[in-house]
Design a protein that fits this description.
Blueprint: E1 12-15, E2 18-22, H1 29-33, E3 39-44, H2 54-62, E4 66-71, H3 89-99, E5 107-111, H4 116-128, H5 133-144, H6 149-157, E6 160-165, H7 180-184, E7 189-194, E8 200-204
Parallel strand pairs: 2-5, 3-4, 3-5, 6-7
Antiparallel strand pairs: 1-2, 7-8
């Protein structure tokens, strides 16, 4: 019998070049190889190294996958209504800028259980994509089971000045089919376009 293809727990496609889920285990590696990943984004308390997870570290090295770590709060362990926010808005901003860069795609983004932390980042991405809050919250609870007041407040208050790559270096799906007028009048985001040298252009949306 051939070895099965087993995706990580809570695996799902967020957009054509972005997938999400739980911390990948060796049983998932064969499936992840089919995604031809260029980047993995780890939203975990501890950095993934050869010392603390030689299996995943070696998998990324073997497949030439850039493993990017964003440290999340060790202490945010409460459940339900008391659950805190284990990630900072500045971190989310950096993650989104990475996600929107075409050359770093395809990307697999994960937290330990594929729930709250990953869902917070995806929710902020959906705000950029002009989803309404009802749809954002519906997607959130699909993977995180519950959404509390802290989660809602973090998502609703997320406002940012995002550095966008030029159109040819940006993922194709971000505003596919939307009018430029709608994008330029985004209710909560400001965008700065960057040229090939990554120096800020004069154009601000």
């Amino acid at each position: 019998m051939p070895e099965p293809f087993t995706p990580p727990i809570k695996f799902a496609r967020v957009n054509p070049t972005l997938a999400r889920g739980a911390y990948p285990r060796p049983i998932n590696y064969r499936y992840l190889e089919t995604l031809k990943l260029k980047t993995m984004i780890a939203l975990t308390p501890n950095e993934i190294t050869m010392e603390n997870d030689p299996s995943l570290y070696s998998f990324c090295s073997k497949n030439k996958i850039l493993l990017v770590h964003f440290e999340t709060d060790h202490s945010a362990k409460d459940k339900g209504k008391k659950r805190g926010i284990p990630i900072e808005s500045e971190q989310v901003l950096k993650i989104l800028e990475l996600i929107l860069t075409k050359e770093r795609s395809p990307i697999y983004m994960f937290c330990n259980n594929g729930g709250q932390i990953t869902s917070l980042v995806v929710a902020c991405l959906r705000k950029i994509q002009l989803w309404n809050l009802v749809s954002i919250y519906d997607e959130f609870v699909r993977y995180s089971t519950t959404i509390n007041q802290n989660d809602r407040a973090f998502i609703e208050s997320f406002k940012a000045r995002i550095k966008l790559p030029s159109a040819d270096k940006r993922v194709d799906w971000l505003w596919n089919g939307m009018s430029p007028h709608i994008i330029q009048n985004h209710p909560s985001m400001k965008y700065v376009l960057f040229g090939e040298d990554l120096k800020e252009d004069a154009v601000q949306l």
